[in-house]
Amino acid sequence: MCEADLDAVLAIERALFSDAWTREMYAEEIAGHEAWVIEQDGEIAGMACGWRVLDEFQLTNIGIAPQCQREGLGRILLAFVIERQAASGCRLMFLEVRAGNVAAIALYEAFGFAPVGRRRGYYRHPIEDAVVMGKRVKPGETSNAIV
Ligand SMILES: CC(C)(COP(=O)(O)OP(=O)(O)OC[C@H]1O[C@@H](n2cnc3c(N)ncnc32)[C@H](O)[C@@H]1OP(=O)(O)O)[C@@H](O)C(=O)NCCC(=O)NCCS
Which of 40, 44, 58, 67 has the fewest Cβ atoms surrounding its Cβ within 10 A? Predict the structure, then answer.
């Protein structure tokens, strides 16, 4: 992801999340952390961001544009992030997800994430618990999602 992607990224972000990230938040991810977009037919179709600290990675955001969902892009993007982290020595990954977000939880479980905690009332608009999920990353871990 780069600054030139932000109009498209923000349009997707606002379509997906009631508590959408701002342009400034994405600019901080680009400048100080890690951020990617996934394209389909030359158009940005989704994004993912995260923070790497030593051998841990916190996935801070992942989303696929509504009209591009259920086509395997979320699986490809998450596989890419995991493989990239595994290749650079990451050993643990964490994320937070709304307790009622069955689509995202199913995606995370498919990659071996499991619940490790719960943050009561963590989300706003509407108020909802966060499930904290974690996963051990194997050295050189790959998946067959990237074809
Ligand atoms: C979660 C999200 C990124 C998945 O992206 P996607 O491209 O639609 O997912 P894929 O097509 O790659 O599906 C991969 C797996 O995710 C799960 N999944 C995806 N959408 C699902 C849904 N609506 N219901 C149940 N499971 C779903 C399934 O396990 C699916 O595997 P399958 O197709 O073999 O059943 C997408 O739904 C999204 O952007 N949601 C809104 C934003 C969001 O909630 N982000 C997560 C914040 S923590």
Answer: 67
The string of pLDDT tens digits covering residues 121-143 is 999 989 999 999 999 999 888 87
Task: Tell whether pTM > 0.90.
Answer: yes
CATH number of the domain where residue 49 is located: 3.40.630.30
Q: Which atom of ligand 1 is nearest to the CA of 65?
A: 39
| Cβ atoms of residues 52 and 79 within 8 Å | no
Give CA–CA dist 87/130, Å, rounded.
29
Compute how many other C-beta atoms are within 10 angstroms of the C-beta atom of residue 60. Answer: 18
Structural domain including 119 reads: 3-136
Here the tokens at position 46 are: 């989704």
Active site residue 123: no
Point out the catalytic residue in the list 96, 122, 128, 141: 96
